[in-house]
Amino acid sequence: MNNGKTERKEFFYFTETTLHGMRYGDWKVLFRDQEKWFRSPQPELSTPYVINLKLDPFERFIESRGYDEWAENRSWVLGQVGGHLAAFLESFEEFPPSQESFSAQLGDFNSMIQKAGSN
Questions:
Q1: What are the residues whose beta carbons fall under 8 Å from the beta carbon of 49, sequence distance 6 or more?
Q2: How far apart are CA 110 and CA 89, in angstroms?
Q3: DSSP of 66-98
Q4: DSSP 8-class letter at 61
Q5: Per 3-state DSSP, what percentage of the chain is helix, strand, and coil (rounded to 5)?
Q6: Which of 10, 51, 54, 79 fits 26 for a cystine, CB–CB 3.0-4.6 Å?
Q7: Does pTM top 0.70 for this prediction?
Q8: pLDDT band at 101, cuts 50/70/90?
Q9: Mean pLDDT, to the nearest integer, of 19-30?
């Protein structure tokens, strides 16, 4: 039994099957933007957001003047996160997803209706 404190330092952020980012210790790196919690586009970022959750627990600094320079000076975090992210993604070879995730795209509804009609 695992009753002790976890040794896990990383946490992965997903929306369905889309990886948004990763937390490692006090650091959070986001690869996608999402302006609203619900019904919002999730565009890929050209450069990931780097957030120190201990300094910025509400994740508001990314909108502040000076953030880009601050993040650039802490871009070393991307290298630290990259190794853990690669190991996590490699784990899907041994433990693949058990089922395909539902996607609410109109094209997908059309395919679902066609599949259901052929059964």
A1: 21, 28, 29, 30, 33, 62, 71
A2: 31
A3: THHHHHHHTTHHHHHHHHHHHHHHHHHHHS--S
A4: G
A5: 35, 25, 40
A6: 54
A7: yes
A8: low
A9: 93
